[in-house]
């Protein structure tokens, strides 16, 4: 083996709306990293650069919110970072400009940006200059958007491909090889374009997640649980009418904390048995799932199961407090006891 051989130090950057982030947004980083590492690159890190609000795409939620979702999404990755730089500019930034900024910051040993510091910290030997290369990582649909009249400047395309390089992940409905073949410019620069096939095809997209959410359908396992705001409710909801709370139950429930206690006024014709125990999924409210917050789900459930609801003050405070943890532990004994009472 040639002792002098040094792999090219590379960082991948993906630009886009991330509205909301999906599992595929992170998956493309893994695919590209595997591919590059087999082709003489040392992949030091990844950067996700969400677009500015003024990009103006229909249905784009605020950059602040997209960034918080992205931060949650990358919690499980030890190499993909978020750069909020584009979102903090006066207006929308062309991708070529964004690449220029990010490459400069990555190679600046005094960089003030956390993502740059983290990536630089991954370098085993820090000889100067740092010589960190930046490549644009994208799905095949993004490269095909190069052909949309007026969307990209030819000189930007030339700059991006020749001075940085592209890693394109295949996507169903796109044919990047043919697209390159049909473009004289891209054919000329094609040694700087890597096309990475995704054999385990997966057509998750932000559009499909938004569609599912707007229809009140589950988006679980399409994006991280922390992004969708869903977390298992591992406790019990005890819904009892005030007059039905017997001393025994009262002493039992008060000894267990936390427990969601919902009191409701008795209905004329009781819609439920004395004690109702349900397992529910709780959602945290965000701009993407405005109809799925914990309180909404619980009110909805109660509406369907119980009439004339009045939630006691403590419970209401709990339900409305979005920062509250949504995971409960309730002792097995209590659950069994409650089950027993339910069947009585
Ligand atoms: N399923 C996928 N396969 C390959 N690349 C993807 C996939 N989903 C997203 N990407 C790529 O991730 C980058 C950022 O994506 P973007 O924010 O546009 O997401 P999207 O899911 O395509 O969004 P939308 O559905 O809103 O158009 C783009 O380069 C896009 O091509
Ligand atoms: N001329 C350009 O630099 C140019 C044109 C169109 C889109 N883009 C970028 O490509 C990304 C496209 O994102 P969407 O696929 O979510 O629309 C955005 O980050 C946008 O800034 C850049």
UniProtKB/TrEMBL annotation:
EC number(s) recorded for this UniProt protein: 2.7.7.1, 2.7.7.18
Pathways involved: Cofactor biosynthesis; NAD(+) biosynthesis; NAD(+) from nicotinamide D-ribonucleotide: step 1/1; Cofactor biosynthesis; NAD(+) biosynthesis; deamido-NAD(+) from nicotinate D-ribonucleotide: step 1/1
GO molecular function terms listed in the Swiss-Prot or TrEMBL record: ATP binding; nicotinamide-nucleotide adenylyltransferase activity; nicotinate-nucleotide adenylyltransferase activity
Similarity comment text for this entry: Belongs to the eukaryotic NMN adenylyltransferase family.
ATP-binding in keyword set: yes
Keywords: ATP-binding, NAD, Nucleotide-binding, Nucleotidyltransferase, Pyridine nucleotide biosynthesis, Transferase
Catalytic activity: beta-nicotinamide D-ribonucleotide + ATP + H(+) = diphosphate + NAD(+); nicotinate beta-D-ribonucleotide + ATP + H(+) = deamido-NAD(+) + diphosphate
Keyword Glycoprotein applies: no
GO biological process: NAD+ biosynthetic process
Pfam families: CTP_transf_like (PF01467)
The Cytidyltransferase-like domain, residue ranges: 13-211
Stated name of the protein: Nicotinamide-nucleotide adenylyltransferase
EC supergroup of this enzyme: transferase
